[in-house]
Design brief:
Residues 112-192 form the Transglycosylase SLT domain. This protein is of the alpha+beta class and 371 residues long. The chain has nine helices and 16 strands.
């Protein structure tokens, strides 16, 4: 089996292995036997960069651009791993920082579509994706060649993609295809619609555990797959907790300014409004929309502010009259973090609430998260 990744063109060889247990039972599965690097991948990356940047053939800038892209990708991946490890440490439990708010907005409709097709809840699929790829649709496992959000095996992808109505080549990096194909494969392994998802019984369901073992590449070895299964279940349980409206007792009807360009009420200039303003009396409680770790501060425009950061977004709460959280505090959805106020540049008491994507450092409409 072959795979092209940022680290090169690799050939993966597998062998069949049979594991026998003391009770006489056995399981047969594929085991990675070796990896051969056929090419370091630079010629593909540099050809793309030369075309994208308009660089002349043979230019030393092409090699320099390749080095910058490669090193930036490695550095970002390492920094993200370190941040997620810090989140786990702050909460004391892997993935306990996650919540429904942190499901990337751009993938939500695909998860809902997959849920309708399979009966597997969107929050459970979110937990699976968190474990498999950390929400990276371009993720490639250098050891196995599996790729995408749901880590599809390249040997089985063409057949599964066609069966789901996708083109294996054109849709390989399509997040919707990755999610739908992954969900359809998982549901082929157990009866999702017959499982009771409302309570907590699903966590210990033997059929679900057997399906996850097969999905994770453990075959029938459910015992060996336990660490993998536990992480998927823990992440899914966390994503099951929905986002919370930041000012209890208010709603969309209390939004006085939406995300987008506006004429600033105190600066009297047209500028981007990177959030929503929710009107409420001074002293009204403000709660965390998500799980995450707190940072607090003050500046002349935002006034007293709290930032809560999870694995996907930064959630920013501004103009607070009082801050009721401390730096480094681990919070869950609904935890009180401050009181509505009018500190900083404000015409009256309200909460300015903004959401910034960590992977692009760009603001998004908070209503995409609060929906």
């Amino acid at each position: 089996m072959e795979a092209y990744t940022i680290r090169g063109h690799n050939l993966y060889r597998y062998r069949w292995v049979t594991k026998t247990y003391g009770d006489g039972g056995s399981v047969t599965y594929e085991e990675l036997a070796g990896i051969e690097t056929l090419d370091n991948g630079r010629k593909y990356l540099e050809a793309y960069l030369a075309k994208a940047l308009g660089l002349p053939s043979g230019s030393t800038d092409i090699e320099l651009a390749g080095d910058m892209v490669f090193n930036a990708g490695i550095a970002f991946t390492q920094a993200r791993k370190e941040w997620l490890a810090w989140l786990d440490h702050a909460f004391g439990v892997t993935y306990a920082w996650a919540s429904g708010a942190g499901i990337p907005a751009e993938f939500r409709t695909f998860l809902e579509e997959a849920e309708k097709l399979t009966g597997i809840p969107a929050w459970f699929l979110a937990g699976l994706i968190q474990k498999e790829s950390d929400w990276n649709p371009l993720a490639v496992n250098d050891r196995t060649g599996c790729f995408g959000l749901t880590q599809q095996h390249p040997d089985y992808w063409p057949e599964r993609a066609r069966a789901a109505g996708f083109d294996p080549e054109r849709d390989k990096w399509n997040p919707r295809a990755q999610i739908i194909v992954g969900a359809l494969y998982l549901v082929s392994l157990f009866d999702a619609r017959g499982l009771e998802w409302e309570g907590d019984g699903w966590k210990n369901d033997s059929d679900l555990h057997a399906a996850l073992a097969r999905y994770g590449g453990y075959g029938a070895d459910v015992v060996g797959a336990k660490p993998y299964i536990d992480k998927v279940v823990t992440a899914a349980q966390a994503y099951r907790t929905p986002a919370v409206w930041p000012v209890p007792g208010t709603g969309r009807g209390d939004i006085t300014s939406y995300f987008g360009m506006r004429y600033h009420p105190t600066l009297h200039i047209w500028r981007m409004h990177n959030g929503i303003d929710i009107a409420a009396p001074e002293g009204t409680p403000v709660v965390s929309v998500s799980g995450g770790v707190v940072t607090t501060g003050y500046d002349s425009e935002s006034g007293n502010f709290v930032v809560v950061r999870d694995g996907t977004y930064e959630y920013v709460y501004c103009h607070l009259s009082r801050i009721l959280a401390v730096d480094g505090q681990a919070v869950r959805p609904g935890d009180q973090i401050g009181l509505v106020g009018a500190t900083g540049e404000a015409t009256g008491p309200h909460l300015h609430f903004g959401v910034k994507k960590l992977n692009t450092n760009s603001w998004i409409d908070p209503l995409l998260v609060l929906s």
